[in-house]
């Protein structure tokens, strides 16, 4: 089955996709990773992508579509994908539909994590990284405790670019850009809205339950 997962910044979407990929033997596909891999290959397309990104420009939907086609045409990934952060807009969603049809695959479901704005703010603002050992914690949701972390608390650092203003604006941008895509999938009866307000395990159990119930 192919699955698409949507979630606002800070909702733990990456963590959830990673766990789903592992438990359901799926391959996690993010366009960011695809772009980086292509650049690393130094292919013609990779070089083109690099020059676009170096100029600070956005990679076109067509380029993204080519990279996605490479994946969908690969038998290794046949009906075993979890799309993380893709499609980004309606054009990409329509392109994806065409490719899915072309390679005789199916989108089994589209999951969207719904998270309260104040919770997202806490998730992002509470994020801490230990500069000594590299473990990550959250001041509000996953506080560092002696049992699993014995470094001095002075090593716990927060990302400085995450101020409230950027969080709110990232969330607004996400909602504005994602709503039409969610409606697009809603009209195809593929959309499952998942309450993303619990902790990581709670949310994961809701998501995995939905996926297990899919008739694929
Ligand atoms: Zn540490």
Helix content: 40-55%
| Heteromolecules bound | zinc ion
CATH-defined topology: Rossmann fold
* CATH hierarchy: architecture: 3-Layer(aba) Sandwich
N to C succession of SSEs = EHEHHHEHEHEEEHEH
Kindly name the structural category.
alpha/beta
Anisotropy-based shape:
globular
* β-strand amount: 15-25%
- Unreliable spans are none
* CATH class value: Alpha Beta
- Estimate the mean pLDDT confidence: 90
Tally of helical segments? 8
Walk me through what this model shows:
With 216 residues, this protein is α/β, with parallel strands linked by helices. It has a single domain, classed as 3-Layer(aba) Sandwich (Rossmann fold), CATH 3.40.50. It is 48% helix and 16% strand. The strands form two sheets. Strands 2-3-1-4-8 form a five-stranded parallel beta sheet, with helices on both faces. Strands 6-5-7 form a three-stranded antiparallel beta sheet. The radius of gyration is 19 Å and the shape is globular. The relative contact order is 0.18. The model has no long low-confidence stretch (mean pLDDT 90). It binds zinc ion (ZN). Zinc ion is lined by residues 130, 132-133, 135, 149, 151, 155.
């Amino acid at each position: 089955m192919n699955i698409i997962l949507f979630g606002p910044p800070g909702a733990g979407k990456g963590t959830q996709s990673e766990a789903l990929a592992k438990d359901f033997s799926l391959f996690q596909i993010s366009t960011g990773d695809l772009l980086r891999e292509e650049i690393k290959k130094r292919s013609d397309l990779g070089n083109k992508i690099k020059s676009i990104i170096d100029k600070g420009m956005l990679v076109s939907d067509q380029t993204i579509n080519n990279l996605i086609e490479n994946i969908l045409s690969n038998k290794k990934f046949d009906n075993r994908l979890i799309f993380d952060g893709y499609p980004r807009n309606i054009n990409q969603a329509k392109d994806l539909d065409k490719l899915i049809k072309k390679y005789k695959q199916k989108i089994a479901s589209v999951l969207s994590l719904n998270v309260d704005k104040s919770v997202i703010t806490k998730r992002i603002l509470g994020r801490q990284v230990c500069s000594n050992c590299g473990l990550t914690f959250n001041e509000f949701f996953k506080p560092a405790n002696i049992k699993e972390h014995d470094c001095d608390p002075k090593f716990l650092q927060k990302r400085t670019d995450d101020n409230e203003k950027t969080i709110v604006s990232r969330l607004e941008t996400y909602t504005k850009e994602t709503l039409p895509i969610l409606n697009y999938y809603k009209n195809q009866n593929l959309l499952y809205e998942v309450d993303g307000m619990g902790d990581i395990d709670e949310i994961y159990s809701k998501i995995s339950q939905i996926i297990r119930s899919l008739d694929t």
